[in-house]
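Hi everyone,

Forwarding the result from last night's run.
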Amino acid sequence: MKKINKKRFISELQDNTNLSYDECLIVNDILENNLIFNKKKKDKVINELILKLNINNDRANEIYDVIMQFFLSKIKEKFDEEMICMKNWVKYLVSTVVFGLIYIVVEYLFYKNIDWKMVIVATILYGVFNIGISKIINKTTKKK
């Protein structure tokens, strides 16, 4: 999993909480020391925010909510990227299976015999070329 960009996190934290850069660094340090988010850690993070930033409980909860929204948005972005990747692999798999089935039908209709080695080789080659060409097209179109 990609690491979160510290500068981007601090910038978003500043924009959404009106904390200073130094205060955001303190928040970042607190989060780095309390990586897992659960009820105990939430309370610990909030208590550390109160102590180190000299703020009240409501303000600490507000900052914590902004932090959680940031992380949830990053998780959603990553999930969306993975779903697109998974959809592409399913598309490649389905098109390759369909190609194999069509190849079998055509070979049977023309020759009344099915050469299974050729079906397997042709289907594998189709799948490899289909993925390769799609990847090349995606890379060239993303640069533009």
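The mean pLDDT is 87.

Cheers,
N.
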